[in-house]
């Protein structure tokens, strides 16, 4: 009996050592493969033509820095970007990306513009001085050189409108009151719904659900360890290769698209009361995606084909949004999904992200939309400065 037990312990030890060795070996291989895939993806973006006017070394540096970005837990919004200091990408300790802010003169009392959105507003494929908010800053500075304007880029990887509403509320609770608020959304509303097969959820919500109460549930710990192991990743990889597993398909795209539109519209409505109470102006922009561009380059045609599983959901949800009765009568809603329809150049580096030229085109649309509001602000400031001061005796 003792011999059998000793044998079983020995066998268990051997199996454990084999598993540990396999886990470590696969980890090294996956790390090598991930870095290689990152390099290949960068070359694909360079070859797309979206960066024809930029030194290729600079483009490589941008994506290498992007690859190093990491996130951390943040209350109410699930996560935010960690502080990062790079040559082209800089994130402060609040998770805010650096904006050029050419028009910031009076740091005590500037016109505050808040920019909310996901990775497209963050402008992942661009240098700090060529993000959408930075390009907007240049346009404002050119047309309103005497105005003091501070633009804050609250964009973050994976954020959708539900999280952005919370972001804005948190700023208001800290008495950081904006004058103009820009929401640039549409892409992550669809991605999050596609991931979870449910509209109105944050991106990667399933991961947060799996992690909930992890410290008090050992079965969850074991399950999470197993499902996040390199061995499990290898098994899933083999399954997909052998059985040709397709990307996740939505069961009822029509219903899901309608729910995406409903949640998006309701999020717009929720801010209206806050907008009036705090006296700031909101603009809601429905962003473009590669499926809404009418003239595709050869590179963009490949991106469309690679992400074809998204197309129906994007098309249907955008149609539902634009046909919504509330949206039709809402002057704060601006459909700029056609922003790239007048260019034959390569704009996209995948199905939704753009190069720096694309950011400029979007910034121009944002600027033209808020120009009248800036003129109103300018007139008010000028009138205030002209008012005679009262003297008391």
Number of helices: 14
The arrangement of helices and strands along the chain is: HHEEEEEHHEHEHHHHHEHHHEH
CA gyration radius, whole angstroms: 25 Å
Strand order of the largest sheet: 6-5-7-8-9
Oligomer status: single chain
- Kindly report the name of the CATH homologous superfamily of one domain: SGNH hydrolase
Largest sheet: 5 strands, parallel
Q: What would you say the CATH architecture of one domain is?
A: 3-Layer(aba) Sandwich
**Alpha-carbon distance between the two ends:** 107 Å
**CATH class group of one domain:** Alpha Beta
Would you tell me which CATH topology of one domain applies?
Rossmann fold
Shape: globular
- The low-pLDDT segments are none
Overall average residue pLDDT: 90
Q: Roughly what fraction of the amino acids lie in strands? A: 5-15%
The secondary structure category is alpha/beta
The count of DSSP E runs of length 2 or more, i.e. the number of strands, is 9
């Amino acid at each position: 009996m003792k011999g059998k037990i000793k044998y079983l312990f020995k066998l268990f030890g051997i199996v454990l050592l084999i598993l540990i060795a396999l886990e470590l070996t696969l980890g090294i291989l996956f790390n090598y493969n991930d870095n290689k895939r990152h390099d290949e993806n960068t070359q694909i973006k360079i070859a797309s033509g979206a960066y024809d006017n930029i030194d290729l070394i600079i483009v490589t540096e941008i994506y290498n820095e992007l690859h190093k970005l990491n996130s951390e837990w943040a209350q109410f919004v699930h996560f935010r970007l960690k502080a990062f200091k790079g040559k082209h990408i800089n994130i402060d300790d609040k998770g805010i990306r650096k904006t050029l802010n050419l028009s910031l003169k009076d740091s005590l009392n500037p016109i505050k513009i808040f920019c909310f959105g996901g990775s497209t507003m963050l402008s992942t494929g661009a240098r700090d001085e060529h993000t959408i908010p930075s390009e907007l800053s240049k346009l404002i500075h050119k047309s309103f050189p005497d105005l003091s304007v501070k633009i804050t880029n609250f964009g973050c990887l994976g954020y959708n409108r539900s999280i952005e509403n919370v972001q804005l509320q948190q700023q208001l609770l800290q008495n950081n009151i904006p004058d103009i608020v820009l929401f640039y959304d549409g892409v992550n509303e669809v991605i999050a719904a596609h991931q979870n097969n449910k509209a109105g959820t944050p991106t990667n919500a399933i991961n947060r659900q799996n992690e909930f109460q992890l410290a008090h549930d050992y079965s969850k710990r074991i399950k999470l360890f197993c499902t996040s192991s390199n061995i499990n990743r290898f098994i899933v990889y083999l399954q997909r290769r052998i059985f040709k597993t397709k990307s996740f398909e939505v069961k009822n795209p029509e219903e899901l698209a309608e729910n995406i539109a409903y949640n998006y519209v309701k999020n717009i409505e929720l801010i209206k009361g806050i907008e009036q109470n705090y006296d700031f102006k909101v603009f809601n922009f429905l962003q473009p995606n590669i499926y809404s561009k009418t003239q595709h380059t050869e590179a963009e045609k490949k991106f469309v084909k690679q992400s074809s599983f998204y197309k129906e959901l994007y098309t249907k949800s955008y149609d539902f949004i634009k046909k919504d009765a509330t949206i039709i009568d809402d002057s704060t809603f601006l459909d700029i999904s056609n922003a790239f329809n007048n260019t034959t150049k390569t704009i996209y580096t995948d199905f939704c992200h753009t190069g720096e030229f694309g950011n400029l085109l979007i910034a121009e649309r944002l600027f033209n939309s808020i120009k009248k509001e800036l003129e109103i602000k300018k007139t008010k400031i000028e009138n205030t400065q002209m008012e005679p001061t009262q003297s008391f005796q």
